[in-house]
Amino acid sequence: MTAKIDTVNVGANALAMQHGAPSYWLKSDKVELYLTEEGGQMAPVRFKLKHRWVSPYALAPWQPDAVDPALPPVLKLLRGDCFCLPFGPSKAVPWLHGEPANLPWSLQRRNVRTLELQLRLDQPQGQITKCIQLKTGQRAVYQEHLLEGLQGKFNYGHQTILAFPPAEKGFINTSALRFAQVAPEGFTDPVKGEYSSLKACAVFEDLAHVPLATGGTTSLQQFPAREGFEDLVMVINQPDTYAWTAATLGGYIWFSLKQAKTLPSTLLWFSHGGRHNAPWHGRHRFRVGLQEVNAYFADGLEASRKNPLSAQGFATAHRFNRRNETRIRLIQAVHPVSKSFGMVVSIEPVAGAEEVLVTGEKGQRVTVPLSWQFLAGEDH
Length: 380
Hints:
It is a single chain. By secondary structure, the protein is an all-beta fold. The protein has one domain (about 10-375): Beta-galactosidase, Chain A, domain 5. About 5% of the residues lie in helices and about 40% in strands. The protein has helices at about 75, 300-305; strands spanning about 15-20, 20-25, 30-35, 40-50, 55, 80-85, 105-110, 115-120, 125-135, 140-150, 150-155, 155-165, 170-175, 175-180, 210, 215-220, 220-225, 230-235, 240-250, 250-260, 265-270, 285-295, 320, 325-335, 345-350, 355-360, 365-370.
C-alpha cells in the first residue's frame, strides 16, 4: 500500500530548474534528487558517501531548449530514470515510450522525503500514480507506480541511464540469467549514422562472452568499451523472488532491486558515441542504460504483444484488467566500496533485517541498509 505522506501547499517554489527542466525536489540526509515535471524523469540524483557526493545518473549532453522542438520530450529531457508505458514506439500511441515519459505529471502530495504525482492516461486509458520515497540513513530511492483502469496487454519498464567515469574502469553484472540475446537487426541504422558492434540476434549464456558482428566475442561486464557504437541486449532473470542489476563506478556501487515477476527482464543499452543523427551527434558517450522492463527489447508495443519468446515461456508484456490495480516497485541504491571491490557477484536480502548483503568478485562484502521488504508491499 502506498505510504501515507503529509500534504503540503503547492506554491511557486514547488519546482526548481535542473538541466533546463522544471523539476520537483526531494532530500534526505543521504540523498538529494530532482524529478522533471514533464515526463517524470529523475536526475540529477546525488548520494552522500563518507566524504563526498556522487551522481551516477546521466544527464543528456544537451539542454531541452537547444534541440529540435519537434523531438518528443523523452528525448529532449533525456536523463536518469523514467517510467515508460508502453516501452518503446507504438503505432497506437503517438509518444515514444508512452505518455508517462513525455507528459506533465500532476503533483498530489509532497514532503521533503516523499513525492506523489499522478497522470491521467488517454492512450491507453487509465491512471498512473507515481510515488517516490527516501528514508533517513539510507542511500536509496524507492519507486512505486500504481496503475489503475488499464484494459488490455501492454509492455512497460524503467528507462534508467547511468554515466560512467571516462577515466576509470567500471563493472556491470546482473543476477543469474535464464536467457540472453542481442537486439534484432534494426536497433541501429547505418543509413542514419547509427552503428552497432554486437552480432544481431545472437543468443549468449553469460555477459562475459557476447558475439561481435565481426567475429569473436566481447565482455559486457566492463565499461567503457566499444567506443563509437550503440548496442542493446536483453537478459531474462531467473524466476526468483528478487532480481538485481549492479554497476561498480569507482569507489562505489549502484544497484537496482526488483521483483522478477513484475519486471522479468533487463535491457543493457551501451551508448558510447554510436549515433550521429540529431540530437545525438556522436556526443552521447560513456552511458549505460540498465533498464528493468516487461518488454521485448525496445521494439515497442506491437512486438512485445507478439512476443517472439513465447515458445520459451518468457513474458514480454502484461495483460491488465481495469477492475484490478497493478503496483510496480523498484529500489535503486548506492553504497561506498573499496577500489578493489570489483564487480558485484551477489546481492542477498538479510532475513529479519532492513539490510542486503552485497558481495564483490574478490570476496569482499558490504552490508547496505535497505528496506527490501518494500518490494513485497510490506510496511517499512
